[in-house]
Task: structure prediction
Amino acid sequence: MTARGLHYGHHMTDRQGNPLNIVHRDVSPSNVLISYAGEVKLCDFGIAKAAGARSQTKTGVIKGKVKYMSPEQAMGKKLDGRSDLFSLGTLLYEMVALAAPFHAQTEIELLFAVRDARKRPIRELRSNISSGLESIIETAMAKQKERRFQDGEEFAESLRAFLLERYPGYGPAQLSRYMQTMFAREREREQKTLNEYVITSGNTEAVGENLLADVLGPDAEYTQFTAAFGE
Result:
């Protein structure tokens, strides 16, 4: 679950046990992946920052995708993990409503909308949303970070309790079946592509080209490769 993944990152420590205070700062749809095994993964910590890092973003400098930012991120303020939880709430809103919570004609107007947390009430878009899920989204996207979930574990537990109440028994196995059904054609196409590169017994020289040979030099180890076949 992404909330627990964030919790893990937010509470990482160095070898001496000092908190690193990592903030992802770019929790957005393109950085949340779901595997065919039903695992949810958070990727691309490219603009994440940890306390004590050599390169620190100055206060007032904004990085990230605007419509998934927290209000404090849109204002260029110092961030903590609760900023990522707001962004995760924005993703949850969009998943349920099938529309982003913040809209504007220009990038600067969008920045102001995010800064002021001026979102369209999700019930206007999904009138049948359960009050429990609505409450989770509202808590995650509270303008004041003191009113949000205070860590990823709290967020994750709220979602888990909701799932147990409304969809008992739903877990990674069910999500995996959904993913495999939803992307059956893509998986078949990928498998056919992989099969084209399976090495079979025959011409062992038609394995491929070592693209690092020129860089490593003629005397480097392992510049030549030979296919090995099992019995």
Notes: The first strand starts at residue 32 and ends at 34. The mean pLDDT is 85. Residues 214 and 223 are 9 Å apart (CA to CA). The beta strands are 32-34, 40-42.
